[in-house]
Amino acid sequence: MYTSGCFDIFHYGHLNILKKSKGMCDHLIVGVSTDELILKAKGRLPVIPFEERIKLVKAISYVDEVIPQVDKNKQRIVDEYNIDAISVGDDWKGRFPKTTCPVEYVTYTANVSSTILRETLQLQAVES
After folding, report:
1. By CB count within 10 A, which of 2, 23, 50, 73 is most buried?
2. How does pLDDT run across 63-90, given as a tens digit for each residue?
3. Number of other residues whose CB lies within 10 A of the CB of residue 60
């Protein structure tokens, strides 16, 4: 199974999707968005640099393998890594790109997100 994310300002919602995803598979591959992809997609750099975010995700016991997510092309990952299924938060229902494998929707963890944490901590977006 494959799941991916920015994993910036790692929180319980991140841990929850990794735990639930691992519960559905034997081997969980996690894509961690590169700084460049986040900048392109969100218009700002992450708070935590890529190398630190990837080390954090690798240290989680539910995760078997970590790869850089350099683009949003999920089908390329499915083909390259022989992925049988993808897991994403159910906030993606109806908007997740089509792939040749099934998509499993994990219940979104309410009231926690990196955006909420960033705003609560009053972190400013890093200028590029």
Report:
1. 2
2. 999 999 999 999 999 999 999 999 998 8
3. 17
